[in-house]
Design goal:
single chain, about 325 residues, mainly alpha, 14 helices, globular, disordered N terminus
Length: about 325
């Protein structure tokens, strides 16, 4: 058994770090655990949008990006301490650097978009990321896309048109930045897919924050101002919500089939819409709901087809 498998066994063993809610939670069927964790992850991701907006009221979005990475680094340092510097040995530093550059650029675009357009609209547009991943997989990885997935892509981009309006000339800067964020997220996903062939997951996460923190500090220095206590609190909550959300999300995927969990990601839209209404007095339009649903259904279909194809290949 490898060290990674031994480590996973320790995490999942009784008393391991994944027994987040005690014996009662650990005793539930795994699909139920996965559903609960997925809902919690979506709640965390929805709250991130709120904390980004609140933090950006006190400091520039470039600073928000830096602090998001900086606090994530502080949270992950114990992992590096336990594992040692050997985890960081790699021959893929160029790919790690590309991933970090795409990551912080996407964060800046996405965080700025959240300050310019309603939270629900930004969330609905973020559902386009899997569409761009599919396109990138064809152009970069040479994957074959058949007619049903092409039709799903077309339907997904129809949902984008529903949200932004029939005339592209009326697209706002915030909407454009939200779509740029989705494209960069897709590019990041393709780089991560390449990295996972040879690199351990913990190393991928650590290299991301180790490189993203100094890279995001450089542009932040040009607009630097020290955050007040309220802004600092929002920044800490942002990092905490993101870290907890990704832990819950990752564990959920390890417990259940992708076709069970992927539809739950749509929960982010109503959660974000409710938060936007209660905190920022934003009322999502019917176009946002309809377009978000169309985009999500198309990405859900693509994800389901990819899972079916992968299962067929394993069974062949």
């Amino acid at each position: 058994m490898t060290d990674a498998e031994n480590s996973k066994d320790k995490r999942d063993a009784p008393g391991g770090r994944w027994r987040l809610f005690g014996d009662a939670f650990a005793g539930l069927p795994e699909p139920v655990q996965a559903t609960i964790l997925m809902v919690l992850a979506m709640a965390c991701f929805a709250s991130m949008a709120v904390f980004i907006r609140l933090a950006a009221e006190g400091v520039h979005a470039l600073e928000v990006v830096f602090f998001r990475n900086f606090f994530a680094l502080l949270i992950l340092l114990p992992l590096l301490w336990r594992s040692g510097m050997t985890m960081l040995r790699t021959e893929k530093l160029g790919l790690y650097g590309l991933r970090a550059a795409l990551n912080i650029t996407g964060m800046f675009a996405g965080f700025t978009a959240l300050t310019m357009i309603p939270l629900a609209e930004a969330t609905a547009l973020s559902f386009t990321a899997p569409l761009f991943v599919t396109i990138g997989a064809v152009l970069v990885l040479g994957e074959v896309v058949r007619m049903r997935r092409i039709a799903a892509l077309a339907v997904g981009f129809l949902g984008v048109l529903v949200i932004v309006g029939p005339a592209f000339g009326s697209v706002s800067l915030g909407t454009g930045l939200a779509l740029v964020n989705a494209i960069l997220l897709a590019m990041t996903a393709l780089v991560v897919k390449r990295l996972t062939v040879t690199e351990p997951v913990d190393a991928i996460v650590l290299w991301m924050v180790l490189l993203s923190t100094p890279l995001s500090l450089i542009p932040a220095l040009f607009v630097w101002q020290w955050p007040d206590m309220a802004t600092l609190g929002s920044l800490v909550c942002l990092a905490g919500a993101g870290t907890i959300g990704h832990l819950c999300w990752t564990k959920a995927w390890s417990l259940a089939e992708i076709t069970q969990l992927q539809p739950l990601e749509f929960i982010r839209l109503p959660l974000t819409a409710i938060a936007g209404y209660l905190i920022f007095f934003e009322e999502p339009t019917a176009a946002v709901w309809l377009g978000g649903a169309i985009i999500f259904l198309s990405t859900a279909y693509i994800t389901r087809r990819e899972a079916q194809i992968a299962r067929q290949r394993r069974e062949a």
